[in-house]
Each structure stands twice: as structure tokens, then as C-alpha cells.
Write a structure and sequence with these properties.
2-methylcitrate dehydratase PrpD; 60s Ribosomal Protein L30, Chain: A
């Protein structure tokens, strides 16, 4: 009897998925992911790294139907997926999911949006594809578990192509066999390492993952064959990247265990690595509850899991990018400005004497409590925060997860406000409001290209 491979199992589910099979709560999470991702993508389109990506595709990409955020370009689906994936992750303000420790939407949304435009899909078709792409990627992430990320692989780069490919294949209407080969192609060529943190490579690799997923689906559509056992092969992803750890049960079709609901998707409240968010929230909570003035603080001790220490690697950041992976910066900037915003990701600010003096008071440790596996499950990037005052008083609190996480979600109104603030960096307020209104009503959209028309902007970098 022929065994069913992992890619075949995923392919059979996603090709059979009908819009009516998706619970309303799952569709709403996917809609929120789209709103959040397009907002940060538009804001990210004004960054230098997004401009680099557009300049590359302007020279090398064939013309096509897919729009590029922050530009008037219309290019091929892979090129648009690349450029928009870079923009979506350029500010590190996009969502996270603990199913694989990934930035899922920043890769899946650009890929799906690009293919949806070229195939003139309607809004409901796009939404179903987003759900399919997310579930396929996140279920593989759950099957692989924590070892992949803890070993130093940047899981967004490793797993992103899976979600991008699954969403693309769904939009192309590929059958189960062809989709399985597309997924095999995407998985066989994947990769990414956490040495990218704090550099242009991080958003660029997110864009490459989106591009790779779209390209794999297009190649399979043309007849290319991929390794169907790319996940479980003796020389496959699980064996080479993950010490062979792979829980195949997670590839079963979701029933009441949709990954978009649990572990769910974490939307960022502030534009820095999620590893710092719980500690920041804890500090602000203590300051507000006890009326503590900044000048009274002698020290701030943050006891965090090992993964937080591994991610926040810049105690003395020299650039805005490094600041996004610095706990002292995230805490100090939040205290100094009341709210850490995109405007504070400024290279010059890193030398501000008031800020750097406050950063010196922040320490990060990982104590013995984090050896408890059950605690890591409920607080994967949590923090025990202790404020020590000059008069000898101390105040402490424990934050298992950040505001904006799936357990403590932002309201739809707060999410829309984030979108408007992000999109407002590059487009007129009236256009931003029309765009977000259309996103909330995505299933009613007859043609996804209506979104693209609102996203098309004058070129921001002169290219």
C-alpha cells in the first residue's frame, strides 16, 4: 500500500477546503491578519530596504498585473510577492505565531495578494486562500515544535515558503497532486538563520520566502515535480534542520484545533521584536499603578526565558534596526516617550544621552524558573519585571504574554487605528480609510484588484 506523504496530506486538505468549511472566528482572525499586514506593509514601503527591493525588481522583473506597495509598478506575481514581503517585514511591526515561532502573515499575505491579482480572484477566494496558507504553514510549525527555532534557524525564512506556496496553489486552483509537488519544491529549497536579526537580511529573506512560495506553485502548474517526502525524508527538512523531530499528527485536517485560533496570532502593539513586549508591558503597568516617576527608578530587572535572551542581542544598539532587538531600548524608549512608535526607530536617537542613560538601568537575566516547561508553554516570551527605586522600594509583576497577543488581543478598533497610522505614512487619510473599510468587508469584494488600485502610490524612492 502506498503511504501518503506529508505534502500530500496537506495538499488534499487545502484543495478540498470550501469557504463554508472555515469557522467564522477563523475567517475573522485571517481578516485581522490582512488588515494588520497591509498596514505595516504600506508603512514599510517607505524604508530604505523596501526601496532596494523595488529597485531590483524594476530592473529584473517582467511587467505584470500585481501591484507593489509604495510604487506605481505592476509586475509579475513572484516579483510583487518579494517586494511586498520585504515591505511587510521591514519595520518588524507585523504579526507572530507560536506555531513555529514565525512571522506568518508578512510572507503569506504578499504572496496570496500577488497571485489573487494576477488571477483576478474575488475577496472570498483570497480570504479562503489566506486561511489555507496559514493553517498549512502553522501546522507544519506545530509538527516541528520548538527545536527548529531554538537551534538558531529563523523559522520565518524556513517555513514561510510553505504558507506562501499553499495560498498561491489554492488561488491558482491546482489539484491535490500538483499542489503536493509545489509544496515539495518550496520545502526542498527553504532556509534562513537567526544571524539576520538587526540587519537588512531579515526583511529581505521574508520577501524571498514569499517569492519562493509563489514560484514553486507556478513551476508546479507548469509540470515541475518536487519531492513529496521533503518533510519526512531521511535527508528532508525534519532530519536536517530539526534533529528528526516531527509530530505528523499535526498534519491532520483541523477540526476544533485551528492554529489561527490556538495558539493564535499575536499582533504587535509596538514596532520591536515580540520578545521585548511582555517586559515593556510589565514596566509600564508598574509605573502606572504605583505612580512611579522615571527619575525615581534606580534599576529595572527583567527575568525572561532563554529565547528572549537569544533574540534581544543588542544591549547597546547603534541603529534603529538593532534597537528592535534590544530590551534596554524597548523599555527605555517606552518610559521616555510614553509609547514606542515607528518614529523612534531612528539611528540618531540611539545616541541620545537621556535615552542611553535610562537604557543602562535595564538588565536582562534568565533565571531558573524558566526551566519549567509548563511555564514556557503559557509564557513563551513572558517576563518577571522588578523596578528598584532610589529610596530602596521595589515593585514586581509577572507578564505571561504581551498586550496584542492572541490571549490579550487588540480590539478591532485599536487594530484599525494601527492600520491608519501606518498607512498614513505614505497615503492620504481618505484613501487609508477607504482601503481599511474594504479590507473589513473582504468577502464582498468582487475583484481583489480593487485593493491594488488603492495601494498604488507615486514612487517614494524616485525609481
Amino acid at each position: 500500500m502506498t503511504m501518503t506523504s506529508a505534502t500530500q496530506t496537506l495538499a488534499r486538505w487545502l484543495t478540498a477546503l470550501a469557504p463554508g468549511d472555515v469557522p467564522g472566528a477563523v475567517s475573522w482572525v485571517a481578516t485581522r491578519c490582512l488588515v494588520d499586514t497591509l498596514g505595516v506593509m504600506l508603512a514599510g514601503s517607505a524604508t530604505s530596504v523596501a526601496g532596494m527591493a523595488r529597485r531590483v525588481i524594476a530592473v529584473n522583473a517582467a511587467t505584470g498585473a500585481a501591484a507593489v506597495a509604495g510604487d506605481a509598478l505592476r509586475v509579475s506575481a513572484p516579483a510583487a510577492a518579494f517586494a511586498n514581503g520585504v515591505a511587510a517585514h521591514a519595520l518588524d511591526f507585523d504579526d507572530n505565531c507560536y506555531a513555529g515561532f514565525v512571522h506568518g502573515s508578512a510572507v503569506i499575505v504578499p504572496a496570496a495578494l500577488a497571485v489573487a491579482q494576477t488571477r483576478r480572484a474575488d475577496g472570498q477566494t483570497l480570504l479562503t486562500a489566506l486561511v489555507a496558507g496559514a493553517e498549512c504553514q502553522y501546522r507544519v510549525g506545530m509538527a516541528l515544535g520548538r527545536p527548529l527555532y531554538d537551534r538558531g534557524w529563523w523559522t520565518t525564512g524556513v517555513l514561510g515558503a510553505i504558507g506562501a506556496c499553499a495560498a498561491s496553489a489554492r488561488l491558482m486552483g491546482l489539484d491535490a497532486e500538483t499542489t503536493a509537488h509545489a509544496l515539495g519544491l518550496a520545502i526542498a529549497g527553504t532556509g534562513g538563520m537567526k544571524s539576520v536579526f538587526g540587519s537588512d537580511a531579515k526583511p529581505l529573506l521574508a520577501g524571498r520566502a514569499a517569492e519562493a512560495g509563489v514560484t514553486a506553485a507556478l513551476l508546479a502548474e507548469q509540470g515541475a515535480r518536487g519531492p513529496l517526502d521533503a518533510l519526512e525524508h531521511a535527508y528532508g527538512l525534519a532530519a536536517l534542520f530539526n534533529d528528526g523531530h516531527f509530530e505528523a499528527k499535526w498534519l491532520n485536517p483541523p477540526e476544533d484545533d485551528w492554529c489561527l485560533l490556538a495558539p493564535g496570532v499575536d499582533v504587535k502593539r509596538i514596532p520591536v521584536c515580540l520578545s521585548s513586549h511582555a517586559a515593556v508591558d510589565g514596566v509600564l503597568k508598574l509605573v502606572a499603578e504605583h505612580g512611579i516617576e522615571r527619575s525615581r527608578i534606580a534599576g529595572i530587572r527583567c527575568d525572561v526565558p532563554p529565547v528572549v535572551v537569544a533574540n534581544l542581542i543588542y544591549p547597546h544598539p547603534r541603529s534603529g534596526q538593532q534597537g528592535q532587538f534590544s530590551l534596554p531600548f524597548a523599555v527605555a524608549a517606552s518610559l521616555l516617550f510614553g509609547e514606542l512608535t515607528l518614529e523612534h526607530l531612528d539611528d540618531a536617537l540611539m545616541a541620545d544621552k537621556t535615552l542611553t542613560a535610562l537604557m543602562e538601568r535595564v538588565s536582562m537575566v534568565s533565571g531558573p524558573r524558566w526551566q519549567d516547561a509548563s511555564l514556557l508553554t503559557v509564557a513563551p516570551e513572558g517576563a518577571e519585571v522588578t523596578l528598584s527605586l532610589h529610596d530602596g522600594k521595589t515593585f514586581s509583576c509577572f507578564m505571561p504574554k504581551a498586550i496584542g497577543s492572541a490571549d490579550y488581543p487588540l480590539s478591532d478598533g485599536a487594530l484599525e487605528n494601527k492600520f491608519l497610522r501606518c498607512a498614513g505614512r505614505v497615503m492620504e487619510p481618505a484613501t487609508s480609510k477607504r482601503l481599511v473599510a474594504a479590507l473589513w468587508q473582504l468577502p464582498r469584494l468582487a475583484d481583489v484588484n480593487e485593493l491594488a488600485e488603492m495601494m498604488t502610490l507615486p514612487r517614494v524612492d524616485g525609481i
